[in-house]
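QA checklist item 7 of 12: single-chain prediction sanity check.
[x] sequence parsed
[x] length recorded as 196
[x] structure emitted
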Amino acid sequence: MSARDDILARLDDTGPAADPAADYRAVRRRYLRRHHERDLAGLLAERVADYRATVHVLTEDGLPAALAAAVRPGAYALPPGLPAAWTSALPETTGDADLVNAAGVVTGCAAAIAETGTIVLDHGPGQGRRALTLVPDHHLVVVRAAQIVADVPEAVERLDVTRPLTFVSGPSATSDIELSRVEGVHGPRTLEVFLI
């Protein structure tokens, strides 16, 4: 059976959907779902660094001091739900109301994709609203080892697709104007990832 015939057969079998989520889970997926079995944290660090982001590999005990060493002068915006222990050593923090004057932002994430070097935020607790990760010039994001997955399909399985999702692959950059790379056009100019 060709792919076309397979798709048409599935369309013929459709009726009113009683449970769209169950229908989605029942979709047959015959593609390779995982490309790597090796050290996912190492692969993520390598791929994130390829995007010109700074990567820090550390323990959770070392996180407060590492974040404090990374901040620039000025207040850093903190989203609701971010563990207070992470930011206990920061010299100056603020809520997420005044993003224009924030020197940067510290967030957690929902998942991190090792294959693509992508950090995924679903804007749940500790991640803040979408603008929080787009307006400040410096984004410090904390990734726990348990949040790292090998590939995009694994990440999608972990995410609630009804929430707003932001996929971050390095600092914001564009090469639209005469193919010259310009960073910070659509979001933070600097991204630092803290792998714990």
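[x] summary fact logged: The first strand starts at residue 54 and ends at 57.
[ ] second reviewer sign-off
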